[in-house]
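Please check this:
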Amino acid sequence: VQLQASGGGLVQAGGSLRLSCAASGTLFKLYDMGWYRQAPGNERVMVAAISKGGDINYADSVKGRFTISRNNAENMLYLEMSSLKPEDTAVYYCRSNQLGLVSWGRGTLVTVSS
C-alpha cells in the first residue's frame, strides 16, 4: 500500500492542525493504521493508532488533544491536533499494518512555535 500524508505546517502554540493520509488500493478497511512522529535527534514514536475494528490508542503525551479517525470508504486516515505545543514539533508519518506487513508514508512536518 502507498501512503501519502499531508496537512503539516507552521502553527503557533495553542493552535490546531489536521493531518490527512491517503492510502492506495482497495483493502484499506483491513489495515490497522497509525500516526507516528519523529523529532530531530529522537526515535520515531507512536502518537495514535486505530485498528481495523476501530479500537483507538493514544500516546499519553497527546491524550485529550489529538483525535485519530479513519474513513474506510475514502481510504483516508486523519489526525486532528489541537492545543499544540512546541514539543509536538516533528515529522509526522502515517503507517499501515496488515498482518505484519507494514508500510510507511512520507512524513509531513509540523512545526509549533512558542
Notes: The chain has a mean pLDDT of 97. The chain has no helices and eleven strands.
